[in-house]
Write a structure and sequence with these properties.
Pfam family, one (chain A): ABC_tran
Oligomer: heterodimer
Keywords (chain A): ATP-binding, Nucleotide-binding, Translocase, Transport
Protein name (chain A): Heme ABC transporter ATP-binding protein
CATH superfamily of chain B: ABC transporter involved in vitamin B12 uptake, BtuC
Radius of gyration of chain B: 20 Å
Organism (chain A): Streptomyces corynorhini
Strand content of chain B: under 5%
Largest sheet of chain A: 6 strands, mixed
Shape of chain A: globular
CATH architecture of one domain in chain A: 3-Layer(aba) Sandwich
Largest interface: A-B, 31 and 24 residues
Distance between the termini of chain B: 41 Å
Largest sheet of chain B: none
Number of helices of chain B: 14
Number of helices of chain A: 10
Helix content of chain B: over 70%
GO molecular function, one term (chain A): ATP binding
Strand order of the largest sheet of chain A: 6-7-8-3-9-10
Chain lengths: 284, 337
């Protein structure tokens, strides 16, 4: 009885101090960028970006190196302040949220996962639950951690120190931490870069499941095949601007991709599934 | 937890031993009985000499060792967490030296601006300035690399050493004796007023520190990921840098430069019990107290009737450990490059 009272007191306190994000119906905008422009070191890295991440949708950001994909993701994550335009999350400008409030609304997977001290894997994943401490959803901590570890297939190394893992294993643990956060917006920067074939597919399947469950997923990808197969929408970035945006089947065209990547490519449907395949044009 | 219980019992035993052992030996039973007597729980007072030795010489020194050791251990754990670097320590990166330069300036210039508190205040302000300086100089891109940190430490230590040298040059003999005490580090001049002078700083720092343990865990992920998990990183850093300055200044103000305690203790505890700060921060305070109490007991008994400077003793044992740690870090990273 004292436990339930403590829980209700905690809930009361949490409700007063931090409003939990309300559920969003599929198709509603979760994060929006309007007229976004970013300058870094005197150079315009992003300009005139209008982009919306919607609930229930996987949005892939693709483009050549230096096109501004990671910068755009960082701006959506509120890591950097845009020089023009604004970013809104959950209907409010990101500046209007405090760091703890924002942590309930978006989770971010950075490109490289580092750790200063050798925490065991399970502790690292559990760090993803930190934003919910003191809220009613704190009780989900154990389940969220176990589920995220099972989904990314890292349960087997739960007690091992993070620093003893390989690059691909670290990447999956970092993803598990992001999944355990259970935020309605996931921003993933190249989650597949260090992964083998099986785990690349696994990660993209997880993204689709999260989208089906009602979350918005924004993912930076280099592999156009993965983007074509798994994303609901793609935005092709080129020199800091969005060159094209829409379903992969409409956006991935020979001419556009050849121009953006400065590499002749051919796009043709997969013989069985019809998903677009992107292959560089080779002489023989 | 077993480790906590072990540390606490080691601390209790060392307190009793330190109170009894010395040029004037007081048996264990007498120590307990005198303490009981003063606490109004029965027991009996000792003879006049014994009572005076115990209450005016030994016990202030024991309490001071506890405060200084806890402050140094805790400051080391916090600093390593804030910098995300296991080699950060108030002594190694020059904060103790900076605080000592402030204290020496107060002595050398004969300042009495704040009465009894003058030296403490100067140590604190100089320590704080040094923390901020090291912090600003050694960070790039949200990280502190080992090389940058150590090199910054060398520069800061050299500059603080030069300032101290300058004050020695202009000081008279009495001041030089006092200044030498700062440089070597010692608890020999422990008195109750000194205990009272550092008590507020040390207690404030020690009480505040554990509240930031969970956020320090998140900071291990890096600056941006910590912010993504709801940590107000800038504020956390500023508060913790202030706490570190508070703790270091408190320790340096009464005991001079005692290095390596803040490095050694958190490391041993991390090896024994993992890197979680919820244990590490209070545990390092406890462990620091144990190490300094044991060190002080050794310093005044090993070469009796002479007394070794405590700072010399901790450096003697701490330096090889630091060297080993450097080698280990280097091996793990595959070179400094």
């Amino acid at each position: 009885m004292s436990r339930t009272r403590a829980a209700s007191l905690r809930g009361l306190f949490a409700a007063r101090s931090r409003a939990l994000p309300p559920p969003v119906s599929p198709g509603c905008p979760v994060a929006e960028a309007h007229g976004l422009g970013v300058r870094l070191g005197g150079r315009e890295v992003l300009g005139g970006i209008d982009l919306t991440a919607r609930a229930g949708e996987v949005l892939a950001l693709v483009g050549p190196n230096g096109a501004g994909k990671s910068t755009l993701l960082a701006a959506l994550a509120a890591d950097l302040r845009p020089d023009q335009g604004e970013v809104r999350i959950g209907g409010r400008p990101v500046d209007a949220w405090s760091a703890p409030e924002l942590a309930l609304r978006r989770s971010v997977l950075p490109q490289a996962a580092t750790l200063s001290f050798p925490f065991p894997v399970e502790d690292v994943v559990r760090m993803g639950r930190a934003p919910w401490a003191g809220t009613a959803l704190e009780d989900e901590d154990g389940a969220a951690v176990a589920e995220a570890m099972a989904a990314t297939e890292v349960t087997a190394f739960a007690p091992r120190p993070f620093s003893a893992l390989s690059g691909g294993e670290r990447a999956r643990v970092a993803l598990a931490r992001v999944l355990a956060q259970r935020a309605p917006l996931l921003l993933l920067d190249e989650p597949t870069a260090a992964l083998d074939l099986r785990h690349q597919e696994l990660v993209l399947r997880i993204c689709r499941e999260r989208a089906r469950a009602g979350d918005a997923v924004v993912i930076v990808l280099h592999d156009l095949g993965l983007a074509a197969a798994h994303a609901d929408r793609t935005a092709v970035l080129h020199d800091g601007r969005i060159a094209a945006e829409g379903p992969p089947a409409e956006v991935f065209r020979d001419a556009l991709l050849s121009r953006v990547y400065r590499q002749p490519v051919e796009v043709f449907p997969h013989p069985r599934t019809g998903v677009p395949l992107v292959v560089p044009k080779r002489l023989s | 937890m077993l480790l906590t219980a072990g540390l606490i019992s080691a601390l209790a035993v060392l307190c009793l031993l330190s109170a009894g052992i010395g040029a004037y030996h007081i048996p264990l039973g007498d120590v307990l009985s005198s303490v009981q007597h003063r606490a109004g729980l029965g027991g009996a007072a000792l003879d006049r000499v014994g009572e005076s030795v115990l209450w005016n010489v030994r016990l202030p020194r024991v309490v001071l060792a506890l405060l200084v050791g806890a402050s140094l251990g805790c400051a080391g754990a916090l600093m390593q967490g804030v910098f995300g670097n296991p080699l950060a320590e108030p002594g190694v990166i020059g904060i103790s030296a900076g605080a000592a330069a402030g204290a020496v300036a107060a002595i050398g210039l004969g300042l009495t601006l704040f009465g009894n508190w003058t030296v403490t205040v100067f140590a604190f302000v100089a320590g704080l300035g040094t923390v901020l300086l090291v912090y600003a100089l050694s960070r790039s891109g949200g990280r502190t690399e080992v090389v940058t940190l150590i090199l910054t430490g060398i520069a800061v230590n050299a500059f603080a050493g030069a300032l101290i040298g300058l004050f020695i040059f202009f000081a008279d003999n009495a001041q030089i004796t006092q200044i030498t005490f700062w440089q070597l580090g010692s608890l020999a001049q422990a008195t109750w007023p000194k205990v009272l002078a550092v008590l507020p700083c040390a207690v404030a720092g020690l009480v505040a520190a554990p509240f930031y343990a969970r956020r320090l865990d998140l900071l291990a992920l890096g600056e941006r990921p910590a912010r993504h998990l709801g940590v107000d990183v800038e504020r956390l850093r500023i508060v913790l840098v202030l706490v570190v300055a508070l703790l270091t200044a408190a320790a340096v103000a009464v005991a001079g430069i005692i290095s390596f305690v803040g490095l050694l203790v958190p490391h041993l505890l991390r090896m024994a019990n993992g890197p979680g700060h919820r244990f590490l921060v209070p545990g390092s305070a406890l462990g620091g107290a144990v190490v300094l109490l044991a060190g002080d007991l050794a310093a005044r008994t090993v070469a009796a009737p002479a007394e070794l400077p405590l700072g010399v003793l901790t450096a003697l044992f701490g330096s090889p450990f630091f060297f080993w740690l450097l080698r280990r870090t280097r091996r793990r990273q595959g070179g400094w490059a």
